[in-house]
């Protein structure tokens, strides 16, 4: 089974090919590289260097958030095009769950975080039960201070949110803050494909009309529109 994982939900967009549970090839681009042409370039690069074409694939998986609003929309648009061109099945994967997989294997609690801007992080916690991730909390947008209040045991932190808030979390949590020390070299796209493999094996794929993006909170444009409409009604 050959699966393609697609992630454009974080600034470092990535594409991966997984064959029978092993990474066949993967690639990622630098910070803030989620434009559609860059993601398409990655797809072409990974396919070409692997000697694989789209029709050789058994399916796709896409990280559907939370994350960059623009990046999520880019990924969804590209996936729709690929599905229409190939008629292959697909699975949607939670971005934070794919991030948490990068910390495995571990017996510790794992907290995945992304910078959500507005002085908040997107976060979810998982339990590393052997090689299996068990979700402990839903995806949420929290202030780093609020997140610290919930951490009461040694916890492995993973995700690009550490770039912005790692020093703060360390200062507040002390010994309960454990930066990920995993030697995992899988990109987020590769981790997503690993999570998706079980779904494909059990034929639990997603219909195209079920492709939804997990924003967690409203976009700035939506908030401004709501504020404008409220002011019109004098609310």
Automatic annotation (TrEMBL):
One of its GO terms (cellular component) is cytosol. CDD domains: ASKHA_NBD_TsaB. SUPFAM superfamilies: Actin-like ATPase domain (SSF53067). Residues 36-148 form the Gcp-like domain. It holds the Pfam family TsaD. GO terms for biological process: tRNA threonylcarbamoyladenosine modification. InterPro entries: ATPase_NBD, Gcp-like_dom, T6A_TsaB. This is Gcp-like domain-containing protein. It comes from marine metagenome.
């Amino acid at each position: 089974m050959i699966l393609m994982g697609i992630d454009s939900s974080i600034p470092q967009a990535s594409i991966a090919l997984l064959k029978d549970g092993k990474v066949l090839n993967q690639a990622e681009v630098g910070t803030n590289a989620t434009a559609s042409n860059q993601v398409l370039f990655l797809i072409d690069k990974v396919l070409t260097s692997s000697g694989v074409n789209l029709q050789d694939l058994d399916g796709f998986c896409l990280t559907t958030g939370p994350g960059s609003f623009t990046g999520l929309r880019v990924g969804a648009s590209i996936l729709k095009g690929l599905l229409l061109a190939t008629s292959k099945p697909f699975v949607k994967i939670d971005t934070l769950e794919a991030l948490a997989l990068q910390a495995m294997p571990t017996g510790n609690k794992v907290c995945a975080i992304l910078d959500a801007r507005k002085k908040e992080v997107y976060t979810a916690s998982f339990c590393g039960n052997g090689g299996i991730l068990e979700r402990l909390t839903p995806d949420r947008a929290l202030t780093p201070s609020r997140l610290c209040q919930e951490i009461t045991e040694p916890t492995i932190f993973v995700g690009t949110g550490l770039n912005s808030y790692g020093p703060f979390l360390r200062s507040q949590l002390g010994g309960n803050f454990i930066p990920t020390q995993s030697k995992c070299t899988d990109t987020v796209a590769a981790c997503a494909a690993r999570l998706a493999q079980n779904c494909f094996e059990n034929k639990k794929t997603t219909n195209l009309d079920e492709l939804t993006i997990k924003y967690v909170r409203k976009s700035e444009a939506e908030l401004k529109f709501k504020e404008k409409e409220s002011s019109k009604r004098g609310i």
